[in-house]
Structure formats: C-alpha cells, structure tokens
C-alpha cells in the first residue's frame, strides 16, 4: 500500500482522473474515455471497455447513438421516463449476464442524473447506484465530521472503521457518517437518515449538523469512473456521547486527536474520498494553516475540482 509524504498526495490519490486527456496514451483507457452527451451537456464519460459492451447491446436494442467521439440517447429516447427505462433495461441485461463486476454490488437504490432543464430539479433520468460508475455520471453524497472538544478546547474526531463485509474499501477508515443522496431525498434528510442508520445518532442530535462546505473530485478505478460532489457537515457531539454501529456499515468508531487522524491519512488507511473530507475539516478548523502547510493552496484547489457535468437545480420547474 502506498504511503503518502504529503496531504496533497492523499488528495491527488482520490482526484486521479486526468485534467487533460491524451488519446496517445493508448495503454491507459482513462485517456480514451469519450463523453456521454445529453443535448449540449456532457453528463458522463464512457471508457473503451464499457463502450465495447454498449455497442454490442445497441445492436439488438438501439437506444443509443454511438460514434467514435461520443455516446448519446437516440431520437426515440427523449423524455426522462424513456431514458430511465432504457438505462434500466441495459443495466438489468448487464447484471444478468455478469458483464461488469461493479454490478455485483447492486443496491436497489436510485441515483438521479442531471441535465434536463425541462424536468423538475434538472433531473434527466435516474439509474441504479451501482451502475453510475459505468457511465461516469456525476453523483452526490454527504459526509459528516463528528467531533468533540475536551475541557481544554482540543478537538477530537470520531472516525469509523468500515465493516469487513463492505463490498468496497472493507476495513478502511471513514468519516463518522457518509452516504449517497438517493432519488427524492434532500441533502439534510440524507445526513439525518445516515446518522441514525450508521452511527445511532438520534435525529434530535443529527439535525444540529451544520452544512459547512463541499468537496469535488473525479476518481478513476479499473473499469469505473466516478466524478463526485460531497456535501460536508460538522457535528459537535456531547463529550459523553458515543456513536454505535447500527446497520453493519461500520465495524466500530474511534475518538482520535487530529494529529492521529492526519497520521492515518498519510499511511493510506482511509477510504480515499473520506480522507478528503477530513482534510477539509483540518483546513476549516485551522489544524493546518497557510503558514505551516507549504501546499495549502494546491490542496484547496484539488479539494474543489471544477466538474463539467450538470448539477441539481432545486425548485426548477416547480
């Protein structure tokens, strides 16, 4: 496992999709990803390995228009409902045929994909959570940094250990609470729900969580692309309150000083995107500052990558 020399290296480990694509790098399929278009918008990216399977499916079920430079829905698939049904049929087929390993983690949980201003909240269609990475569509989630202050005013952070049964990143460290924002859930509803489900934090405490920031990054792993926006919340818990695992997502919780949190991040013991949420906390609470962190500005830039994809438009057409 790679050990990081700096926090910037930890951020870059997560935000690892190339900023400039170079098609000449034929041995790296990240550089040969093509845009998934909806009208004038790029709503995702498709890797060559996924494109092969998509072309094969499209021969018998022609719901996409595919060229060497882009993928988009065909003229027969124009509404949000039609797009949703077309993508569902595709993913059901791939899941049944075990075309991609990522679909083994099927959640029966829908994520919205944005980019249609004629639809409420700019939602173009919805798709199964586990399949989002195959189309490289932008997803959204929440992360909670829960902490206490001791009698001397020092901050200690609650850190989760992911369950060993998790299909992704088992046993690594995590923020106290985190989760994706499912279709028809608001940001605040999601954080309150996840607090209770994952850490047994009751709603009267969870509702006190403060929306403080967000981070954006673009992660690439073998066969999967994941541009993400994570809404960040801080929750100062009473000193005598202890999070307790409830739904099996977390193995246990630790209460650590921030120096210990930093050491474990540099040791690459964290789920990559969760490390970013903790680093953002370091900056906002002056655990690292421009005077003591040489790469402070670069870290900030990488925590807030500009993503090209459409975003939620709350209240649109309502």
Can you put this structure into words, describing what you see?
By secondary structure, the protein is of the alpha+beta class. It has two domains: about 5-15 and about 140-305, Nucleoside Triphosphate Pyrophosphohydrolase; about 35-135, Transcription Regulator spoIIAA, CATH 3.30.750.160. Helix content is about 30%, strand content about 25%. The chain contains nine helices and 13 strands. It has helices at about 5-15, 50-60, 80-95, 130-135, 185-200, 205, 260-265, 270-285, 295-305; strands spanning about 35-40, 40-45, 65, 70-75, 110-115, 125-130, 140-150, 155-160, 175, 175-180, 210-220, 225-235, 250-255. Strands 7, 8, 9, 10, 11, 12 and 13 form a seven-stranded mixed beta sheet that branches. A four-stranded mixed beta sheet has the order 2-1-4-3. A two-stranded antiparallel ribbon has the order 5-6. A hairpin with an 8-residue loop joins β5 and β6. α1 (about 5-15) packs across α8 and α7 (about 260-265) packs antiparallel against α8. Pfam families: DUF4743, NUDIX. One of its GO terms (molecular function) is 8-oxo-dGDP phosphatase activity. This is Nudix hydrolase domain-containing protein. InterPro entries: DUF4743, NUDIX_hydrolase-like_dom_sf, NUDIX_hydrolase_dom. It comes from Mucor saturninus.
